[in-house]
Structure formats: C-alpha cells, structure tokens
C-alpha cells in the first residue's frame, strides 16, 4: 500500500535523512496527487490526469495566509527547523503562481526562521521553462530529479502523463545553477542501474555538472508492486562512477536508515 497524501499546506516538521528537521510546503491539492509524472516507484501511487484536470488550485494569496498562520504557530513552540521545502502531493512548479509563492515563503522565512534554507524537491518536468527556472533560482537549494539517461527509459520509469521531452529536461537542468540531482535506481521491472542505461545516465550527469548528487533506491511500497530495489553495493559502485564523470568528490547515498557519503 502506498502512503497517504499530505492533508495540509504546511506539514511537519518531519525528520528527513537529507534535509534534517524539515517543514514541508504543499501548494497543491490535499485530495489527489498533482504531478506530470506517474513514476512506477512513487510512494503516493499513480497519477490520475483526468482528476487533475478537474481541480482548481488555491490562489497564492490564500496559500500564503495559511503558510503564515502555520509558521506563527510553529515559531511560538520554539521547534527547531533545519529546512523549509516545497514538496507535498506532487510537483510544486505546476502552480501558476509558483514564483510568487517562492518570494512570499522566503519573506516569511526571513521573519520567523531566518537563515533556514528554502528548497524544493522537484521531478524536473518543467525545468525547461524559463519562467520556472527563474523561480527555482530564487530558492536557496534545488533538489531536482534525474533517474534516466534517455527518452525511452524516462518513459518506462517516470511515465509522464503528458507528452514530455527528456532532452529538454536535461538542457533545462544544465542551465540551472547550483543544482543537486536526486536519482533513484531500480533492478526490476526496469533496470537503470547497469549497462547502457547507466552509461547514458552518466553521460547526462556530465552534461548537467551538478554541485551535489543523491542516489537511492526504493524502501517503501511503490505504485507498481513489481518494482525492486538495488543493493547498497551497487549504489556504492554507481557513486564512484558518478564521481569520475563530474567534479564531485563524494556522492550521498540515501539508505533506509541513514545517509552515507561515498
């Protein structure tokens, strides 16, 4: 069984192996997954495009008010916050006022949680758009998805629900500054962890020049129950190969219990 959706605009803080005590910002609906990807490994299950098309997103003014109310309450408790992250029930950049939301969340951060980084977990599906990149550049940290090295594997693993061009995504990522990539590796029903599939991913990695790389595999239930993880040993091998084609000296491997620098 996949996990439930987030049921509020601000949720947490949750203890994240990658981001510490992280406060999540969900600017998307609370009753459906809202994403252009329908990844076979997604912990929220499959994307229903027809349901998405019937939804009207809340305007930025309403969302910002709720975010400020939540920040006030959390601040009043003295809770330690390590990061504030746009994530939640899908792809945050799908909100038509995403740039405004970034600006307002950073304003509220400055008031309630100064110096705490504001980041995003993104599937990268809209990074080819200049206006999306402009908004992403205003964030303190960008964690962008890249699981595959070509269009065919992208279709099989990330399973976009609308027509998508993998090359445009990689080009957009290469134009984004200070990007940390996140890549998930599988062994079944599709294997992106070895052979030509891995070589092509490494070539894409070299094109993008990330400042950070986090690799991981599946540890929770997935949309497709046939999905199987790769071993920690294989993650370590991939990490070493990634360092050879980039300027990275280390790669972060996220396991089911901890972070490991490889």
Mean pLDDT: 93
Strand segment count: 11
Sequence stretches where pLDDT stays below 50 over 5 or more residues: none
Which architecture would the CATH scheme give at its second level? Alpha-Beta Barrel
Task: Give Rg in angstroms.
Answer: 18 Å
CATH topology assignment: TIM Barrel
Helix content: 25-40%
Total individual domains? 1
Major sheet characteristics? 9 strands, mixed
Task: Record the strand order, biggest sheet.
Answer: 1-2-3-4-5-6-8-10-11
CATH class: Alpha Beta
- Summarize the helix and strand pattern as letters: EEHHEHEHEHHEEHEEHEE
Q: Give the CATH superfamily.
A: Aldolase class I
The helix-and-strand class reads: alpha/beta
Q: Estimate what percentage of residues fall within beta strands.
A: 15-25%
Straight-line distance between termini? 32 Å
Short description:
With 262 residues, the protein is of the alpha/beta class. The chain has one domain: Alpha-Beta Barrel (TIM Barrel).
What does this structure look like?
This protein is an alpha/beta fold. The protein has one domain: TIM Barrel, CATH 3.20.20.70. The protein contains 8 helices and 11 strands. A 9-stranded mixed sheet has the order 1-2-3-4-5-6-8-10-11. It has a two-stranded antiparallel sheet with strand order 7-9. Helix 3 (98-112) links the parallel strand 3 (83-86) and strand 4 (118-122). Helix 3 (98-112) packs parallel to helix 4 (130-137).
């Amino acid at each position: 069984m996949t996990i439930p959706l987030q049921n509020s605009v601000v949720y947490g803080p949750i203890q994240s192996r990658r981001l510490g005590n992280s406060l999540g910002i969900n600017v998307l609906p609370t009753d459906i997954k809202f994403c252009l990807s329908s990844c076979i490994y997604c912990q929220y299950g499959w994307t229903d495009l027809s349901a998405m098309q019937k939804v009207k997103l809340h305007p930025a003014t309403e969302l910002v008010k709720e975010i400020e109310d939540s920040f006030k309450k959390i601040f009043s408790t003295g809770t330690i916050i390590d990061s504030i992250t746009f994530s939640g029930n899908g792809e945050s950049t799908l909100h038509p006022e995403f740039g405004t939301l970034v600006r307002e969340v950073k304003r509220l951060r400055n008031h309630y949680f100064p110096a705490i980084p504001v980041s995003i977990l993104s599937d990268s599906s809209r990074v080819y758009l200049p206006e999306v990149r402009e908004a992403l550049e205003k964030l303190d940290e960008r964690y962008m998805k890249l699981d595959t090295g070509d269009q065919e594997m992208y279709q099989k693993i990330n399973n976009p629900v609308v027509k998508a061009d993998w090359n445009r995504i990689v080009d957009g990522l290469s134009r984004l500054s200070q990007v940390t990539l996140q890549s998930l590796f599988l062994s079944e029903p599709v294997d992106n962890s070895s052979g030509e599939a891995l070589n092509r991913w490494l070539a894409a990695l070299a094109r993008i020049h990330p400042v950070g790389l986090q690799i991981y595999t599946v540890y929770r239930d997935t949309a497709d129950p046939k999905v199987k993880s790769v071993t920690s040993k294989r993650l370590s091998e991939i990490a070493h190969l990634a360092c050879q084609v980039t300027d990275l000296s280390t790669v972060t491997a996220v396991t089911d219990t901890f972070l490991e620098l490889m």
